[in-house]
Amino acid sequence: MNARTNQEQSRSGNVKRRPLYQSAAEELAEIIAHTPPGDRLPSEPKLSDQLGVSRATLREAMRLFEERGLILRQQGVGTTVVEMPQVIDSGLEVLESLETLSSRMGLTMTMGDSEIRLRSPKAEELEQFDIPRNARLLEIKRTMLAEMRPVAYLVDVLPEGILPRGEIEERFTGSVLDLLLERKQPTLSHAKTEITAVSASPEIAHHLNIQRGDVLLCFKGIIYDDSGNVVNRSESYFLPWTFRFHVLRRFDDVMNVVERNRKTNDG
C-alpha cells in the first residue's frame, strides 16, 4: 500500500466516509476558479500530488467539472479551463432549428465537421419510410458549434430526392428542418420526439470533444407530411450544460374536469 493510498484512506475517514472524489472536487474547484479561461491546469500527476489523491480519484473529480462544461480534457493536449457557455433556452411546444433558436438569443451557430452520403436503408427503415429495397437514403451528420464551441451532434436521414444533394452541398448550413420548411414540399404536418439521456459513443464523443460515456440529451424525432408519410428521421445529441429545455403545461378548465369525472362516475 503506497503513501498516497494511506493518505486517501486517512482523509476518507476524516470526512466520515464521504466519497473522496467530492472532497477532491472542492479543492479542484478552487484551482479552477483561480485559473483564467483558456489556461491549462497542471498535469494529472502534479494535480494528484497537490490534492493528495490517486489519479483515478482525480479523474472522477474532474469529470464533475467536465460535465458542467468548466474544463475541456483533450488527450495529448491536457486540461483547459473554459468559459461557461451561454445556455440555449427553449420550449418544446414548437419544432425549431438550432439556428433559429440561437439567432433569437443573439448567438452565432455554425456547422463544424459534416458528412453527407447516400446509403442503403436498414430493415426497420424500409418499413418506417415505406420505400422499396432498392431505394437509397440521404444521411447527414454534422457537429453544431455555438460561438465556435461544439454543443450538439445531429444526424438526419430522409429518402433520396426529398432534398436534392446538390442543393444541400450548396446551401446547407446545418438545419435540415429549415431547408424542408423553405422548400414547402412536401408539406410538413407534425413531429414526434422521444427524449432520453444516453452515454456518448466514441464517434459522438470525438465530435463533441468530450469523454466516451459522458451523458448527453438525445432527441429522436420523426417528421410527418400532411399525408402521414415519414419525411425525416433524426437523432440529436446535446451537451446538457449548454441547453435548457422546458415544456409549457396548461391546467384544464376545472369545471370541465369535474364534469368529465361526474359523467365517468355516473356511467
Quick structural gist:
The protein has 267 residues and is of the alpha+beta class. It contains 10 helices and 10 strands.
Task: Describe the structure using short key phrases.
about 270 residues; Arc Repressor Mutant, subunit A; 2 domains; about 30% strand; globular
Walk me through the structure.
This protein has 2 domains: 3-81, Orthogonal Bundle (Arc Repressor Mutant, subunit A); 88-246, 3-Layer(aba) Sandwich (Chorismate lyase), CATH 3.40.1410.10. It has 267 residues and is an alpha+beta fold. It has helices at residues 3-14, 20-33, 44-51, 55-67, 98-105, 123-129, 165-171, 176-183, 202-208, 254-266; strands at residues 71-74, 78-81, 88-91, 109-119, 137-146, 149-159, 188-199, 215-225, 230-238, 243-246. It is globular, with a radius of gyration of 24 Å. α2 (20-33) packs across α4 (55-67) and α3 (44-51) crosses α4. A 6-stranded antiparallel sheet has the order 4-5-6-9-8-7. 36% of the residues lie in helices and 30% in strands. The chain contains 10 helices and 10 strands.
Draw up the topology in text:
Layout: H1 3-14, H2 20-33, H3 44-51, H4 55-67, E1 71-74, E2 78-81, E3 88-91, H5 98-105, E4 109-119, H6 123-129, E5 137-146, E6 149-159, H7 165-171, H8 176-183, E7 188-199, H9 202-208, E8 215-225, E9 230-238, E10 243-246, H10 254-266
Parallel strand pairs: 3-10
Antiparallel strand pairs: 1-2, 4-5, 5-6, 6-9, 7-8, 8-9
